Sequence to fold (1041 residues):
Amino acid sequence: MTGKEYRTITDVKGPLVFLNKTEPVAFGEIVELRLTDGTLKNGQVLDTSDDQVIVQVFEGTASIDKQTGIKFLGDVFKLPVSTDMIGRILDGAGRPRDGGPAIVADEMADIIGAAINPYSRQSPSSFIQTGISAIDACTSLVRGQKLPIFSASGLPHNDIALQIARQAKLVGSDDDFVVVFCAMGITAEEYNFFVHDLERTGALENACLFVNLADDPAVERLITPRLALTAAEYLAFEHDYHVLVIYTDMTNYCESLRQIGAAREEVPGRRGYPGYMYTDLAMLYERAGLVKGKKGSITQFPILTMPGDDITHPIPDLSGYITEGQIVISRELHQKGIYPPINVLPSLSRLMNAGIGDGKTREDHKSVSDQLYAAYAQGRELRGLVAIVGEDALNERDLQLLKFADIFENQFLRQSRDEDRSISEGTLDYAWELLSNIDTKYLVRLDQKWIDKYHPTDKKE
Amino acid sequence: MSKENGVIYRISGPVVTAVGISPRMYEVVRVGNEGLMGEVIELHGDQSVIQVYEETSGVRPGEPVVRTGQTLSVQLGPGLLTKIYDGIQRPLPELEKTMGVFIKRGVDADGLDLEKIWSFNATAKAGDSVSSGDILGTVQETKTIEHKVMVPPGVSGKIKSIDSGEFNVTQTVCTLEEGAEIQMMQKWPVRTPRPFTKKHAPEVPLQTGQRILDFLFPLAKGGTAGIPGPFGSGKTVTQQQLAKWSDADIVVYIGCGERGNEMTEVLDEFPHLMDPKTGEALMNRTTMIANTSNMPVAAREASVYTGITIAEYFRDMGYDVALMADSTSRWAEAMREISSRLEEMPGEEGYPAYLSSRLAEFYERAGRVETLAGGDGSVSVIGAVSPPGGDISEPVSQGTLRIVKVFWGLDAGLARQRHFPAINWLNSYSLYPPSLDQWYRDNIKSDFPEIRTEISALLQVEAELQEIVQLVGSDALPVDQQLTLEVARMIREFFLQQNAFHDVDTYSDLKLQYNMAKAILSFQEESKKAIAGGAALEDVVNVPARTDLMRGRFESGYEDKIDEMLEAMNKQIAETMEAN
Fold:
């Protein structure tokens, strides 16, 4: 709109630039900054008034001086979207990173993303088979869900995410997933790991990557997931794709949010994170789902590392209030050498009941899942007791449960990184086999009719 | 000079500052070229600070701001029930029609269907003297609910003419001699409580069919309850159970800043749920407000007021209304976000200093009242609280606990053990029993309060014994204490645990709850006798009829069979004595 270039910077603070007296500038408008050496940077308006405008600079404010020219581009941030994005690697601001040509836009999409009318949503109920028994049996994922991985540094969350990306499929359907991968502040090493794995398995052709690495500007991280979700919405709701969005690492995103808040001298909430972090995270997570009348769907797999393994830290805590459950990775299991080290006890899928059962997975799924859960929980509790009183003090039932906890971890949880177990034979039948190590009379969560039908030794032919 | 139109001076997220107008506090204004809806929340010299209910990106300084002269109001009249609204009473299905599946901005929609024709049945007649709140006539709004058309607050006089017949909500159904014309629709500002004659003491329980709630920690009609709990502990399921089963006439359900998919589940499920009393769809008595976490925060802030105003309106007709707000923490966070944009001096954890007074004002709108028309009506408020990390020492939980009379404390540990509803019986409380006990004696059984006391005492004793068991194991306890542990386990597994997803177990009426509690105490008594007579504890505990009695609660017709089952159990327990 205005072609004018302003040189009215008054203050520069952290990632923010303050300038005076402009023509009316729109809230959220995109800004181009021309440094004295000719370098271009981009930014966005965070606050606007007749007297002062505050611009957040994506690439950081290094080398900006009061002579820097500022041009307002007259529009809010939009991403050129097209189906050509599939198979491409873009940077954290949506520009090609793979040396390929720029994306030819079918459409320019506003990256803020409007809220889906709750009335127009469709309840997610299609089971996604990940081939990982711990997830499929105990925290089943359904299409349109947002299910984060709560991990911590040094744990194999990336492997799990990749395995899910490779193996995820709908039972009894040929629909494939398109993966939208969004990296926020991860290291080049981690990034290479992802790209190599996606290349190796050919999944890259079916993926679109948005990459902001650890040495890329921190502020850019605030828009990277919005770009990824905008692309995902376009693919899902304009072109009927089923999209699996993986983002890593949400913790880095929240750190950036805190950085901006601090630079604006906002009143901080818990642990210095801004008070609006819940709303901000919700604006990302809530962009998952299915809508009436559209074939596509968006399923989200955010990965976050819990600082200090603390699940009550504001980042996992606020996420847990928005997402539909969580998959918790355990350091203890990892140190025992078990992959995937998923601790099913604090893990949860809120949409599980809608996605399992007769006609979706199998009629006995719920019972088996409850029984596994109960037996494993009791077995783990008994471990604590055995440490004090010794195994001799246990009765027959307790001994069996104690043994089952080990069997569960070593056989049911443990699988290799490319092992793809089918829900019926690979996971549920296997669960029955392992449960048969416990006397049937102790399996109180299993309905008799399922024992008659599925128990490997007690079933009635 | 005209003070009707001004211009935008500054935009910072949902907060817009305008100059050139002098509106009243809380007046609704239209902001920018798109006419976004906003509300004046601060006057500052010649600047007016406005919170905008819609996304503001792309709006520029210099765009117009127009006064409407009205404060944020809801439209009240026939057509509220079965509706689903956003936080500022825009019907979501209407929004879908005009703007598709994504909520865009600058769109207005009436809360009531202004065209729909209702059959108005006048109950007042010409010549009657009427005043505010008096009932003029009725409309059968849904199959089960009769809507009462009332004289709007502030209007009174002698009726000149009143007609039964077919009208829409904006047509005049009644004229007063002084010239006032009354329509079925009235408007009311959401931030102002609706008037009533006086508040009554809470004397009648709100029955919910949830055993732990009704029996141990009851809520009175017109009472207030808080449900704090960490994520995954079952807040939403509990709220939904209350919305489904509580014996209120009208239910207002506010989904405030929560998950979209969860709201969809409620929307999908409710129309198929049947009211156990009337056999009609529960939706017929329900109004829902859905402002999910990613919808604008200012509208989230307004949503609880919109909800409670609708609840008060039905109360004024003489109905018992239950309002669920899930979650009040998100509402408080909306206040915090707006407050920080206003650069107000914060109180604890960044929340505004007026947080607790706002919470108090909100809960204070609950109550059982004598309406202006002379009848009785009530609004019960049940607020979910989502404390960060499950730690209830934070400001929203504390501010809530200071006001509410019932505390249902959800416990992550219980949820992890799959004990549902995961309400901790040791730290939860209700302050209503003293005022409700007479009702229980008159309507259920004369010793109801005593039975309740015995049950909760047993749970307390168990907690103390468990501490010893942790150290020495249960075998080291004397046999009478071991029996106490068994009885307490029976209370927990048979009585407190209740499966919300089981067709039969999901609801138990008070009578049955009483009988189940009695059965547990009877087991204790008979077992004591048997053990004193030489029976082994293990034999007593394992009598098959006890398992039958406990399993029976999953079968329909349990209330008719329980006495028989109890007798069978007692008989078998007595037999264990003879066996020795």
About this structure: Chain B touches chain A through 64 residues (CB under 8 Å). The first strand of chain B starts at residue 5 and ends at 12. Chain B is about 35% helix and 25% strand.
